[in-house]
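Lecture notes, unit on binding sites. The following record was shown on slide 14. It pairs a sequence with adenosine-5'-diphosphate.
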Amino acid sequence: MIEMRKKQFKAESKKLLDMMINSIYTHKEIFLRELISNASDATDKLYFKSLTDGSIDASKDTLKIRIELDKEARTIKISDRGIGMTADELESNLGTIAKSDSLNFKNENKDDENLENVEVIGQFGVGFYSSFMVADRVEVLSKALGSDEANCWLSEGVEGYTVSPAEKEENGTVVTLHIKENTENEDYDQFLDQYRIEELVKKYSDYIRYPIVMEMSSQVPDENNEGEYITEVSDEVLNSQVPIWRKTKKEIKKGEYEEFYKQKFYDYSDPMLVIHSKTEGQATFDALMFIPENAPSDFYSKDFEKGLQLYSNGVLIMDKCADLLPDYFAFVRGLVDSADLTLNISREVLQHDHQLKIIAKAIDKKIKSELSKLLKKDREKYEKFFKTFGVQLKWGVYADYGMNKDGLRDLLLFKSSNGGYATLKEYVERMADSQNDIYYACGDSEEKIALLPQVESVKEKGYEVLYFTDDVDEFAIQMLMEYEGKHFANIQKDEVDLSSDAEKEALQKKNEDARELLDKMKEILGGEVSSVKFTNKLGKHAAAISAEGYVSLEMAKVLSQMPNGGNGIKAQLVLEINSEHDVVKKLEKADETALEKYTKILYNQARLIAGLTIDNPTEFADMICDMM
Ligand code: ADP
């Protein structure tokens, strides 16, 4: 006799299972779609194998999912003749949670004693365990393809489960749910009703590419006894089997895209944008893509894998085909189905596949054009999108040395001194005739940039300034080089000078006259600055830091945060003193000690304003107190 020992669920599985069992979730019905999806996956796997192994039976009879209801016994059975599971697989697949999404969910809800967030259950891949929302006993009878033995996994809840040898003729899996008794608040009987099940299959699993068959009984007139009815039973296929992406837009019901997206990509929000396209020509393919409302929780982790699902004629051949998406669109979820691709193609071969490259190019273009449409049609929504994913696009401009700039640059948004966001196009259209360059300034936040002395004075002159708040901004702009013939000018760099020729001349003279003083100040600051000079672009402020040469202040900041410290690349700093400010008189009159003090104070305060750190804050504070 075989000894059977009850095994414990792994801790995290137990927790999720517990949530399922005690779930107050209203959409308990999703258990069915989860089980059908599993059956469909198992059938896919078998079909896929059969392509390279002629001995595997992948006939029509096999590629089918069956549902059986038994009202008396209160059971619902979902069976497939797919790949099946060995005893070990039953153990590892059903004894632990495989899906990282489920795990994430568990982590987020660790402290959620009352399971308040239970509404989100089932809106994503909670999988097999959802059975326990409707059943108090679950049996999984399975025989793996190519194996002689079958096994039965059995569980009645958190106490644990058993796996024991069993009898089963064909490979595949039969999941039997023993449906709970109705309670005062819960109607479980519905899941034993054929019409309700039919409805649920249509709602959630219509696109499953294998027939989902159920024996349906109906009342038909009895030919022998007039006025009497007899019950007739016959197999019926419940799903249309047309994958949603194969349907035309007209055929797709309201909410169908959203439902499909949520269950397929384990999101609990509707997608922000749906892109459904049929392409014919150089490559023929259907694409169904979604831009999520929010970035996936692992989006910024190194574990995140971009990619679209790849189907060949409705059969999944790769789950995340990275080559289909450029990095700057890594957030796009979805799939591509093309008859042009051969089924049993390996990952390595696929990478060099000509057809795939054409598809990838077309997809890139499509996403760009849809985003561009959105930008024109629904600015508010686009801005929301840009807040979430805009940085990706900027990196896209930067990473390919601007190669992709053509499609991407018009999708970029920058905060503007005019308020709100501006595209480069909008900026250029608003430019004054007298303005040659696109002005920008960098900083940690809009608010801080707006307060920069240089920004204030440019704004006072009536020019618009773009505010660069992302690290990548200035790097991306460097790659763009220009926009519609207009160059970009960092107004914290000294080349930007908006004064008139006469003003310029006067300033130059002032600088020359004060050469000695300014050089002395430079000396006081040691190697910190490459020069000290008078300027007339600071409005009412006394001093500011700017940079000269290729590297701007912001770029230097970003570079210094890189792992290699930016290879020691530094900006060449210039201390600019407002030639109109009263402080100049003080400087002119100061003796040696006072000049040293004033210079250091001006320099340090200018650094602070520019968002740079100062080397010796204590000394700085002491100097100010001294003066007070
Ligand atoms: P998933 O989201 O991965 O489907 P589930 O909890 O639903 O998570 O299932 C866990 C694993 O159990 C599946 O990934 C699969 O390997 C296996 N499995 C579930 N149902 C079946 C089935 N009908 N046939 C074969 N394997 C199955």
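Take-home: The longest helix spans residues 354-377.
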